[in-house]
């Protein structure tokens, strides 16, 4: 039984795949938050290194991965592709279920794939300190790990709700030498303004982004770094899908269904963009690609495709994306990494062009799937990753009805070892199945910035 499909270290891809080269419709440009005119590279230089700005706008199909970055990737890459034989058996499905496992990285998720690259380019350009936000703590700990390897400082603004729920993520960041504060914090103007209005707010990613951007813009030696959403972040994650395709080739499989959870969209982009390329190229035209969102924060499934700010304070450029509105504060669900109001512009474009589908699921059914998966396959998944597992199981059950032996692959984006308190809540029956009310979404969407 071929359960674990491994590549050699020298098979780590040498290039990232840039899907901008293959888009049917080019991306709409980011707009300046005040002038509402397209943002040029120079506008971004106060907070990003030049090479990442170049990658953000680059139209080349492939971009070389620096040797130093590949060297660090070898700490955990190539990541394994597993066939979930035991899960298939329990489901009595004719479908074949594969999953790429990104939980083998030191911080335990896919996020260091881009954290390492971003820290590297910042270091190369003489930056000494990076400010960032984190939701559930996976991004903050990934960037702490990455900056530490390059001898840089790191300040993390962590969404208060998660900061209180997940003390161990904070300690991980500290272990890797970073400073982590709950957001909103008294350390920035945007944080102080929100605290004055609502001292007990659980915070949101949008608020934490405002704080980190402000920090970077007001310190000379400091840049800002984002763990998802932006084009260069999606780019760096494509290493996942490229490896997965080689691994599927090794066992003579072609994917019929590709599934990943979607918060800001980067792990979805990472697994699926190489498959979207096959769909565009006609190599695998019928492959179904699905982003899975929480019903509490369904940007693609129920949001609007429009220009919006990336943060609450309106400091970031306006991005054309599926959004629930930048002042949307999603309820404190247990998949903190999926609580973002918008969706990566690249993923949004492909969703609008009907190359990527989306669906949304509730917390309790997600944890049903997580526990079933853990009992069958051993790995305890992050609640974020379990969104993909839920839909993979549902698709496998559909195959059982139709008798089709489809090949399903999903991204098991991280382990859930720091999320066990949410498992505790699930076992205690205290998880609430929250669906964001349509009126509140409409209310928030009314406040979208006007673009002429
Ligand atoms: C952050 C995170 C996600 C969601 O973020 P994306 O930007 O959508 O990738 C999913 N899974 C895990 C384990 C995460 O840490």
From TrEMBL:
Record-annotated Tryptophan synthase beta chain-like PALP domain positions: 75-414
Modified residues (N6-(pyridoxal phosphate)lysine): 111
Molecular functions per Gene Ontology: L-serine hydro-lyase (adding indole, L-tryptophan-forming) activity; pyridoxal phosphate binding; tryptophan synthase activity
Top class in the EC scheme: lyase
Cofactor(s) demanded: pyridoxal 5'-phosphate
Catalysed conversion reaction: (1S,2R)-1-C-(indol-3-yl)glycerol 3-phosphate + L-serine = D-glyceraldehyde 3-phosphate + L-tryptophan + H2O
Function field: The beta subunit is responsible for the synthesis of L-tryptophan from indole and L-serine.
Quaternary state and interactors: Tetramer of two alpha and two beta chains.
The name this protein goes by in its record: Tryptophan synthase beta chain
Species name: Methanospirillum hungatei JF-1 (strain ATCC 27890 / DSM 864 / NBRC 100397 / JF-1)
Upper classification of the organism: Archaea, Methanobacteriati, Methanobacteriota, Stenosarchaea group, Methanomicrobia
């Amino acid at each position: 039984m071929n359960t674990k499909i491994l590549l050699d270290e020298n098979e780590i891809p040498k290039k990232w795949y840039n899907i901008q080269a293959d888009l049917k419709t080019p991306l709409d440009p980011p707009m300046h938050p005040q002038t509402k005119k397209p943002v040029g590279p120079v506008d971004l230089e106060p907070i990003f290194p030049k090479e990442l700005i170049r990658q953000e706008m680059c139209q080349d199909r492939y971009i070389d991965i620096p040797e130093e970055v590949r060297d660090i990737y070898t700490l955990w890459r190539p990541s394994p592709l597993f066939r979930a034989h035991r899960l298939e058996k329990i489901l009595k499905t004719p479908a074949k279920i594969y999953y790429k496992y990104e939980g083998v990285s030191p911080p335990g998720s896919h996020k260091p794939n881009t954290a390492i690259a971003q820290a590297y380019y910042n270091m190369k350009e003489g930056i000494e300190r990076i400010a960032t936000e984190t939701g559930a703590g996976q991004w903050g700990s990934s960037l702490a790990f990455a900056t530490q390897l390059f001898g840089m400082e790191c300040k993390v603004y962590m969404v208060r709700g998660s900061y209180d729920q997940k003390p161990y993520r904070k300690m991980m960041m500290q272990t890797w030498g970073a400073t982590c504060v709950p957001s909103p914090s008294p350390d920035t103007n945007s944080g102080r303004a929100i605290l004055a209005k609502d001292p007990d707010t659980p915070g949101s990613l949008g608020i934490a982004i405002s704080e980190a951007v402000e920090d970077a813009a007001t310190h000379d030696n400091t840049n800002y770094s984002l763990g998802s959403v932006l084009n260069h972040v999606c780019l760096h994650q494509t290493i996942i899908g490229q490896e997965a395709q080689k691994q599927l080739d090794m066992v003579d499989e072609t994917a019929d269904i590709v599934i990943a959870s979607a918060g800001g969209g980067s792990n979805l982009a990472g697994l699926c963009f190489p498959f979207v390329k096959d769909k565009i190229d006609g190599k695998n035209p019928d492959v179904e690609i699905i982003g899975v969102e929480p019903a509490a924060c369904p940007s693609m499934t129920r949001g609007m495709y429009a220009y919006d700010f990336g943060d609450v304070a309106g400091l970031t450029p306006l991005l054309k994306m599926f959004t629930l509105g930048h002042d949307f504060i999603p309820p404190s669900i247990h998949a903190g990494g999926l609580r973002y109001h918008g969706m990566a512009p690249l993923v949004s474009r492909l969703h609008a062009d009907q190359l990527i589908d989306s669906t949304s699921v509730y917390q309790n059914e997600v944890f049903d799937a997580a526990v079933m998966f853990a009992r069958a396959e051993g790995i305890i998944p992050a609640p974020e990753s379990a969104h993909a597992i839920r839909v993979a199981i549902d698709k496998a059950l559909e195959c059982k009805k139709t008798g089709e032996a489809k090949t399903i692959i999903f991204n098991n984006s991280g382990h859930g070892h720091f999320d066990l308190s949410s498992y505790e809540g699930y076992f205690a029956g205290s998880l609430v199945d929250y669906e964001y009310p349509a009126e509140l979404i409409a209310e928030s969407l009314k406040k979208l910035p006007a673009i002429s």
